[in-house]
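go over whats below:
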Amino acid sequence: MNRARLNPGIIVAWLVLLAGCEFLNSVNPLATPDDGTFAPVATDPNAVPTDPNAAPTAPATTPVTVPPSATPFRDAVNKAMAAATAVQSAQDQAAWQAVAVQWQEAIALMQQVPADDPNYATAQAKVTEYTGYLQYAQQNAAAPAAQ
């Protein structure tokens, strides 16, 4: 395969899949610290920030309901890959809102991973990571289109 012709979507998909990699987590500001501590992040977009200096996030226009999944971890990763791909072409508020919904669905699916699942710890870390991506998408969805 000619490496000069790799599709950017494929690169993003691989980055999403490799997000659990130690190197990527070391450069990811939203990654869970190596000391094993985990501070869950509220996924309620209307939640009041605990930091008084924090900027409020844009509220989601529609709550997302995700039906129970037999394979929530796999489904969440697939949804996250779709969201990461959609970010590449999102240019208007409607497209960014669609991206935000995909991140909400990925978060909801990760939250379905049971505690006895081998992927549980990774799923909890991904909830935090995906919440950052959701907030970014919501900010872009709320911003007026650039002219």
